[in-house]
Amino acid sequence: MEELGKNIRRIRKDKGITIQDLAAATALSPSFISRMERGDLNPSIASVKKIADALGIQVASLFQEDKTESAQDNEESMIVRKNRRRKMVYPGQKVSEYLLTPRISDIGIEFLLGYIEPGGTSGEDTYNHNGEECILVLKGELTIYVNDRVFVLGEGDSMHFYSNNPHRWENRGNITTEAVWAVTPPSF
């Protein structure tokens, strides 16, 4: 989480945003943001999403090195090799996600491969964002909460929902769940 915190601090400072301004924009406390920037705590996915939204960036931008992306007609701009996937780790939530799309800045959809350990969750709080999501469970079981409804997806099950509805998810099973998300427009 230290790298995540460093990236948040770097982007926040580059944009001239104070911790207090970011706290006000996210409804998170200044001490929470400060501790997260120092790598002292593991934020929920919902908290990271709030921060990314307030900074005007996609979540995946917080997990990559400081470099400029470019849309070129070369293999690297079209293909993501297994060993070159960008990894986003949320240790406190027992979740690792890999960005399967080569770019996040100029395409209309993103694919994520998630590994959710038993007890892993997107966080206690629901979150929402513009767009739509499709989820395919490859292995294990995933419980998804959308509005006031609860859905349990097993291996091979898939689901679609409008992500402007409050939602969250968790692995209540006893094995690591593997799932693929398609999100449009890209928001992570």
Attribute tags:
188 residues; alpha+beta; 434 Repressor (Amino-terminal Domain); Jelly Rolls; 2 domains; 6-stranded antiparallel beta sheet; 3-stranded antiparallel beta sheet; 5 helices
Question: Could you characterize the architecture of this molecule?
Answer:
It is built from 5 helices and 9 strands. A hairpin with a 2-residue loop joins strand 5 (142-146) and strand 6. The longest helix has 13 residues, at 2-14. Residues 66-71 have low confidence and may be disordered. It has 2 domains: 2-63, lambda repressor-like DNA-binding domains (434 Repressor (Amino-terminal Domain)); 75-184, Jelly Rolls, CATH 2.60.120.10. The strands form 2 sheets. A 6-stranded antiparallel sheet has the order 1-2-3-9-4-7, with no helix packed on it. It has a 3-stranded antiparallel sheet with strand order 6-5-8, with no helix packed on it. It is of the alpha+beta class and 188 residues long. Helix 1 (2-14) packs across helix 3 (30-38) and helix 2 (19-26) crosses helix 3 (30-38). The chain is globular.
